[in-house]
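Hi D.,

Good news: the full-assembly prediction came through. Inputs first.
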Amino acid sequence: MDPIFIVGLVVAIALFFDFTNGFHDTANAMATPIATGALKPKVAVAIAALMNLAGAFLSTTVAKTISVDMINDGVSITAQMVFAGLTGAILWNLTTWFLGLPSSSSHALFGGLIGSTVTYFGLAGVNFAKMIEKVFIPALFAPLVAGLVAFIATKVAYVITARSQAERKETDISTGRNKFKIGQIFSSSLVALSHGTNDAQKTMGVITLVLVAGGVQASGDHVELWVVMSAAAAIALGTYAGGWRIIKTLGTGLSEIRPPQGFAAEVSTAVTILASSKFGFALSTTQVASGSVIGVGLGRKGGVVRWNKAGQIFVGWLLTLPAAGLVGSLSALLTMQGDWGLIVDGLLTLAVAAAIFTISRRNRINSTNLLSEVEGASEVVLSARQIQANAKAQKKADAKSKKKSKKGKK
Amino acid sequence: MNITINWSAFIQVLAAALGFTTLIVACFSTGVRLLTNAQNVASKARKGNAKAEQSESLNLIGAYLTFAVCLSALAYGIYLVVPFLPH
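Then the structure:
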């Protein structure tokens, strides 16, 4: 088969990954403003999409330097390897989104590429020490840092805006805490912008890598304009599409985040991400955003965190790289077989993706599993009142089922 | 296996995130409080109460100042995000 045709296929699947990256990560910026009512759902995803589009165009100077330093230097990456890796990343992204687990799209990308490297070159091709350094350690630090920062920020916001009962009676005013909604518009937009500059750039880097490997582009010192435009469009479309789906499933999950908490969460997410890239300690946006939401949940009086959900999310983070890697290495077994293997692998990926979409559509209204990204994390945060209500509903349900079973015995 | 954790970078990230976030949120919260104060005395000020008028304008000036700090933090954030700008 024409090598140009294979390069074209890899570009197509890379853009598909970019799309899943967008809708997987919409909630990082927009879950909290939607929850507090600072932004209408449709407006929020539109802003996030625009910010991602703008960010993707602004970031191209960094795109060419993508390097997967978890793969050892001696390994020469081919278009077929990248193709297999991308299918792994896409399928894991779709699976975690379906399960409602916030997980890092970048880790999925790295995992997929590492998995296909293992199939092509064996375990010697992988730098495991770097893997622990770049993936597992940050997964521990990100929620701790963001959670602590967001917790303190929430305390500060509530203490400063607090009004005593006497003061409220005398002056007949509220605390004015709804004004935080205005701030949220800016803080969440900044999170979306920084997401665009980070994540679209990874897809551009991967495409450029393949173009150079396939001989289409002479050297990797620049990113072609059409690559920038298509990657920017793909992530923006994904952000807009996924965001819309998220809102359908949102409803109750985020209602307990209030404006001061939303603002505190977004500011700590934005600042932590900016600080981490400035000081060279890479942290995942998704993990930072999840940590922030848990932090603000703990920071408000009466906020309760459901730690079993938090545990599930954390397990998802640890599984992301190995799971995407497993799919990537299985895909690589196919792409190794030659051109027909690559086509079959591509068709299989599309089929599985279509299946996941179809199933998610079927139970999108009633299933609580369908909460995605940060909603997953904020679902963790329940107020005492909500927990009481849940317990009551559970008791009622228990009583009913007991009655039923008694009737059945009679 | 040789795993190295860049502790100094980690501490820098933690310190910067904690410092800047607290500063921004504290500024915005102060702005919210002052703005609410101003709104509280607005009706009295409109009636020509000199004390209320003074209190309203002082609170408003304070609120605008703190919001200006927040906006400049936002501008700095955009500056950091956009690699086109000279660093």
